[in-house]
Design goal:
103 residues, alpha+beta, SH3 type barrels, 2 domains, 5-stranded antiparallel beta sheet
Length: 103
């Protein structure tokens, strides 16, 4: 505590640095708690979307379960029931479902 008071009393550049340190610490905490996990999640989602292949069982953001019947660069064809196929944007796939049987 005395060191901080001494630096602040001398004025000048040292005082400006001491006053700026809490902001730097706040930005560092914000990065590690918010930005870094968000980047990691986006990277995992991108990898999952690029690895989609025919036969994968997936769920869409709308809650529709289906099996991939065809793959295009920006879309996939899902079989959601017998004789029912829908074209869905890749970005609408929220995840790959494992361990469920074909309905």
């Amino acid at each position: 505590m005395n060191a901080i008071a001494l630096l602040q009393s001398t004025g000048g550049a040292a005082s400006a640095i001491v006053n700026f340190l809490p902001f730097v610490a706040l930005i560092g905490v914000w990065y590690f708690l918010v930005i870094a996990p968000g980047n990691k999640q986006r990277k995992q989602q991108k990898e999952m979307l690029s690895a989609l292949k025919k036969g994968d069982r997936v769920i869409t953001t709308g809650g529709i379960y289906g099996t991939i019947q065809g793959v295009e660069p920006e879309a996939v064809y899902l079989k959601i029931a017998d004789n029912v196929k829908v074209k869905v944007a890749r970005s609408a796939i929220s995840g790959v479902v494992s361990g469920e049987s074909e309905s």
